[in-house]
Amino acid sequence: MWEGRRVVTIFGSSRPSRGDPAYVRAERLGLAIAERGWVVCNGGYGGTMAASAQGARQGGGATIGVTCALYGAPPNPFITHHEEAVDLFARLGRLLELGDAYVILPGGSGTLLELALVLEYMHKRLMPPKPVLLMARQWRPVVATAQRETGSHTASLQEVRTPEAAIRALIGTWGGE
Hints:
Order of helices and strands: EHEHEEHEHEHEH
CATH class: Alpha Beta
CATH topology: Rossmann fold
Strand content: 15-25%
Strand order of the largest sheet: 4-3-2-1-5-6-7
CATH architecture: 3-Layer(aba) Sandwich
Number of helices: 6
Radius of gyration: 15 Å
Number of strands: 7
Helix content: 40-55%
Distance between the termini: 12 Å
């Protein structure tokens, strides 16, 4: 836990901009997380990363952004705690380490990599079981393939459709914290 609070790491696309449905949804997710007193963690850049951090800030919450020194880009303005990893692998490792739960939004190859890493770490028991919430149907075939190939069925993996459903799922796992 970060400063005694649960941390929800959010993975998603860097492409959406303000007003896009994906941006609005990520913003609502960040707000809902902050309203529970939890911390939003993400990759610290634009798109759904900025949106979820913006929502968390609107709710008075803290945000952690883990950026990559190789990219040379500053974090979005909604990040309250910035960490800069030396490379992509260190960044991914830190995002996993910080998270008490993971929410996977729609995204591209970067989000695919993040989801695959979470699944692999859980399958190999390199981290304790943690809630993994899929907020995009596009990940169904990825998860099905991983489960079929590994024979592993992750009990902590759930598909949710809305930010509110994500919060309910986390409360169901963590209790009323």
